[in-house]
Amino acid sequence: MTDVTRMTATAIAAAIASGETSAVDVARAHLDRIAAVDDRVHAFLHVDTEGALAAAGKVDAARAAGEPLGPLAGVPVAVKDVVTTKGVPSTAGSKILEGWKPPYDATIVSRMKDAGLVILGKTNMDEFAMGSSTEWSAYGPTFNPWDLTRIPGGSGGGSSAALAAYEAPLAIGTDTGGSIRQPGAVTGTVGAKPTYGGTSRYGLIAFSSSLDTPGPCARSVEDAALLHAVIAGHDPRDSTSIPAAVPDVVGAARLGATGDLSGVRLGVVREFAGEGAEPGVMAVFRESLEALVKLGAEVVEVSCPHFQYALPAYYLIAPSECSSNLARFDGVRYGLRVGDDGNRALEEVMSVTREAGFGPEVKRRIMIGTYALSSGYYDAYYGQAQKVRTLISRDFAAAFERVDVLVSPTTPFVAFELGSRTADPYQMYLADLFTIPSNLYGGPAISVPAGLSAGLPVGLQVMAPTLADDRMYRVAAALETAVPPLTPPAL
Ligand code: GLN
Q: Which reaction does it catalyse (predicted)?
């Protein structure tokens, strides 16, 4: 049999179901691959060898007993470290949570366990998911398997790098402003942000609660859809979870894979054209449009005049919510405590702990957010940003009256060199120029590999109306049939 670490999740599940291989052998092959390459990639913060082999053993036992297996039973998955896993370290990439083992699983984790997925471990990320390069991890950066001198995107760079390095066939990410799609784009993998509220936030370590959305990462669109179907659906433990049926994302991905897009209208946002994506990225984008037109789609230019304010609005809303969410890390309830020598007042211990436990980008966000929410400034900053958010949602609504989906490059530039943007926060924030609008609106969006620019991957972003996640899978799967697979150089 071919090397299982190169196979899709779909193929792995079929091989386990038919008895061609066992879930334990599949888990071992991936653990071996991690042992062989992760010292160079650093996609993982924690590898759960024992847990993975035990979970795989259960799937093999269930199969031997003739029990029915789910469509992804026995398939390994890597989980971003911002998602709680019972008894398994969950640090969110921060020193302040070093050594913390959550007493419970996130809803998406329990759903994966119930479906027989095998959790390999926890992946590296920018601290508390704030960043676009994984360089803000307190545990050192992740390296892009396409070029180890370059960033793998962020904040979920570990999840996407694990896929590109064949350390895992599936991964979980979270997307607040682009952290699933942008790492997907720059590592040549697929990353999907479901409709906000379509996947449960219960058990995510919160960054910006009105934006945080967990979702699937994979090397194929169908694999992403299969994982989406496992984790999505209403959860009473999340107050913003949508009590609606999950769209048939797997069926849509399979429909798209037939390569027929007749009658599908793609909207190209006029205002994005002037936003300065690299020429190489724009060239791949234009080729993708041509390929989609050949498959029967129609391209329509649409205007979304408020998208130009998305980035500044996001950088008020997200830090504001983070300044409130991160108040819980006070050295008393979780993780790190510094300076508790019996003489210090509680407030001082909290302050010393937060000073030592948070990194520079997190501190910057807490300060911006606290300022934006402070009395006298609230209306001018946070209130104004919320109004912009409404205008952006209206732009989406108007566009979706004319087209089925919007398409754009996922990112303005390909993977950049490590260290080249950390000194200038604004340069780092620009990585999410095209991904942030759909977060503010709440609709689903996916990044699918579209081609190479100077030897590095470029992603196409497909954005759909809220609860029409199936549409983006269809278009993404169609593009996949038209683009040769992107294979990173051997590690
Ligand atoms: N890069 C964006 C930020 O720094 C998005 C992060 C995310 O989606 N978690 O906030």
A: L-glutamyl-tRNA(Gln) + L-glutamine + ATP + H2O = L-glutaminyl-tRNA(Gln) + L-glutamate + ADP + phosphate + H(+)
